[in-house]
Design goal:
single chain; 108 residues; mainly alpha; 5 helices; 55% helix
């Protein structure tokens, strides 16, 4: 029987990263907090994190449609400093990820 190897999780401890990389990490904020909810090393990961949180709010059964809209608007607002830097291609990726994550959470 052929050995297939083991699965290595794709997790990096922030403490294992050089200090300058942590300082340059892209922060994702949630409303009401001055500290980042999470930090990402690359824009693609940041977009995934944003899209996942956006989808969780959008598909939540705890809030009315109006409450969800308000929470999403605030979430977008506190992260707008970064999203305003996106060019056309990155904006298209960003909007596409939002739709993909909403569909994934809706189908769970």
């Amino acid at each position: 029987m052929k050995e297939m190897g083991s699965v290595i999780p794709n997790v990096v401890e922030l403490s294992a990263l050089p200090e300058d990389i942590i300082d340059a990490a892209l922060p994702l904020y949630v409303p009401g907090s001055d500290e980042p909810y999470a930090k990402y090393i690359c824009t693609e990961d940041w977009i995934d994190g944003f899209a996942e949180m956006h989808a969780k709010i959008h598909e939540s059964t705890k809030f009315t449609a109006e409450e969800k809209a308000a929470k999403i608007a605030k979430f977008r607002e506190v992260n707008s400093e970064f999203t305003k830097t996106f060019d056309g291609n990155l904006t298209a990726k960003f909007l596409s990820k939002l739709a993909i994550h909403r569909k994934e959470i809706k189908n769970v």
